[in-house]
Amino acid sequence: RDRGEGRSAGVGGGGVVPWSWGVFSIAGAAVVALLWVSMQLVAMVRRPPCEELLDVADRKVAELQRRMRDMEAALRRPAAVAASTPERLPAPTPADPPAADVVALRGRATASAQGLAALGAPGAGSGSCLPKSSRTEDDGYPDEYRGWFDVQGCGRCLDYCRWVGDSGSGGDPRERTAEADSWWSCRLAGTDAAKTPPGYFVTWKYALCSGEGALAPSQVADEQHPASLAKMGNPITEDQLKAAAANHAIGVVVLVCKRPMYLERTMRSLVAAERDLSKFPLVISQDAHDPAMTRLVRDEYVAKGVAYHINHEHEANAEQIAKTFGQVKHTLGYVRIAQHFGWVMRTMFDRFGFEAVIFIEEDMEVAPDFFSYFGATLPLLQKDKDLFCVSAWNDNGYGKMVLEPRRAYRTDFFPGLGWMMTKEMWAEVRDRWAVAYWDEFMRRPDVRKGRQCIRPDVSRSFTFGSQGTSSGQFFEQHLSKIKLNDIAVNWSTLDLSSISSVAAFDAFLTAEITAARKVSGPEEIGALGPGGDAVRVQYDDKSSYKSLAKRFSLMEDEKEGIRRMSYRGVIPFAWNGRRAYLYTEQWPPNLT
After folding, report:
1. Residue 100 or 273, more confident
2. What is the pLDDT of residue 39?
3. What's the CA gap between 519 and 534, in Å, rounded?
4. CA torsion, points 339, 343, 345, 347, in degrees to nearest 10?
5. Beta-carbon contacts of residue 511 (< 8 Å; ≥ 6 apart)
6. 149 DSSP β-pair partners
7. Is 276 a catalytic residue?
């Protein structure tokens, strides 16, 4: 009836119009609709089909740009991190473009993120954070890795991440983000998604926080220690170093002289390795004043707040000391290196006050978990009086002779090549430090005093110095073949009780050797096939060690009566994919 009377609540302020006007209006709308459909059909015929897809992509880009404007405050981090924003794009749905086009779309998003960073977004932690997800389901598999993280990079931990799927926990996400039918997934802040889909995170670099909404670990360092070394940027001061030392940081010193091209490679690996800057401050100690080295250190590392620079002057008595060894030209370099090491130790321990120091030379690369390894083993070194060092090096660490990146051993041998000692050990040797050949000094019985070092199965350091004082000694034949670990192991989560004391390691190693199958040599191991249970080979130290070592490609020499990497005469290594032990009849006792 209303339609017949021509009533229209929206026309003429509610007045009455003739019924024929309604008919004309309807007819006109139909004509307009028909024309619109025709135009769309013509446009679809005239343009390539891929433009349909581009329209979808353009709409997606517009939506992303809107989201990025909303997230601008959250993107308060360096460009390198901001560029990883595409990892947080919404998961594709059936209505989204195909995978290849999503890749292109993510490329546009990367450019947008980099553009925001280039505009000068301030540092993380200013308090502009997206709220946690509104979803709460699926807490994931119960393990030590799940919890709250600061994925958005705002300084607060509002992203909940964990292992989900059907295959249980996959372990440390820094090592892998997928395991069979399980994957590492997050309830990301600012979203209403319960999970990110498989493949969303290809790598993982974020530190676990203490709880929901907590300060991100780097922010804790900043707030508790405003003058700390938690960020690179401004040059490091001596007061900051002393403050870090007072807060139980481990000093990391790189000893350099005149090989700047080597130092660049070393520093790249150190900066790339995961490290809490406030816990592992870097110091570069330069021997003498090579101009190229000075410029590199000053411009690339001091000015940018990467490392603190100290300078050791050549000591006037070096040549006189070298004469006492004969062959002055050959020995002088070793005298100066020993004097440099002694000066560095006095500076790091006595002047700056560090309780523990890691020593690295300018021709070394380090593994991704280098600092994790030393951070986890320091408490053992400080507590156990039967230890005097921790080393990153395995002298028998050829690629085919190592097996377990999560395994560490005790050894009676001093390995050096990326090593740590404590202030207490320095106090023992300060007044009688080596005048030359400092590493041989550390192996002397009156220095070692029956103590051991901790060393890894797979080396966490690698020396590439084919040129230098040692003239590349053993480099081609030996050093160049050592495998540098390439797996990021979180050492703080490992059970290190087997190396925590002499008694514990004796029990562990005795059980391992006793359970191993006794064989005669590498040929018999080869006949067993690759992989499998451990084997043991007995040797006589005086008559058969060198021949066995040669057959197994082990280092044949000894220093101060100690075989390289040995413990009570036992040398653990790997052969043909299985654990192997060389041992003597003296130890373990009562072994048949």
Report:
1. 273
2. 53
3. 10
4. -170
5. none
6. 159
7. no
Distance CA 398, CA 553 (A): 9
Residue 363, both tokens: 């021709």
Question: Cα(345)–Cα(331) distance, rounded to whole angstroms?
Answer: 21
SS (H, E, C) 227-258: CCCCCCCCCCCHHHHHHHHHCCCCEEEEEECC
Chain centroid to CA 444: 34
pLDDT tens digit sequence for 53-110: 444 444 454 455 445 544 543 443 333 333 333 333 333 333 333 333 333 323 333 3
* Strand ranges in 430-514 using DSSP code E only, listed in sequence order: 452-456, 461-463
CA nearest to 90, candidates 182, 161, 191, 205: 191
pLDDT exceeds 50 at position 52: no
Residue bearing tokens 């925590």: 500
For 288, phi then psi, to 5°, come to 70, -155
Backbone angles phi, psi at 70, to 5 degrees: -65, -30
Cα dist. 298→270, 302, 543 in Å?
Answer: 17, 5, 54
Per-residue pLDDT tens over the stretch 114-158: 332 332 232 334 457 899 999 999 999 998 889 999 998 888 899
**Are 255 and 287 within 8 A, CB to CB?**
yes
**Nearest to residue 244, comparing CAs of 222, 270, 225?**
225
> CA separation (Å) from 87 to 57, 103, 113, 208?
17, 11, 11, 18
Write the Ramachandran bin of 456: left for phi over 0, alpha for psi from -120 to 50, otherwise beta. Answer: beta
Of 447, 429, 281, nearest to 350 by C-alpha is: 429
Cα dihedral sign for 521, 525, 526, 528? positive
pLDDT tens digit string along 338-366? 999 999 999 999 999 999 999 999 999 99
CB 182 within 8 A of CB 170: yes
Three-state secondary structure string covering 525-543: HHHCCCCCCCEEEECCCCC
Torsions phi, psi for 301 (to 5 deg): -120, -35
* β 578-583/571-575 pair status: antiparallel
Quickly count: other Cβ atoms within 10 Å of residue 87's Cβ.
16
Q: Which of 96, 101, 439, 541 is catalytic?
A: 439
495-498: Cβ within 8 A, 24+ apart: 496/376, 496/377, 496/380, 496/408
- Rounded-to-integer distance, Cα 213 and Cα 35, Å: 56
Helices 50-70 and 99-118 meet at what angle, rounded to 10? 30
Asked whether the beta carbons of 381 and 426 are under 8 A apart, the reply is no
How far apart are alpha carbons 235 and 410 in whole angstroms?
Answer: 39
Q: What is the pLDDT of residues 516-534, one digit of tens each?
A: 999 999 999 999 999 999 9
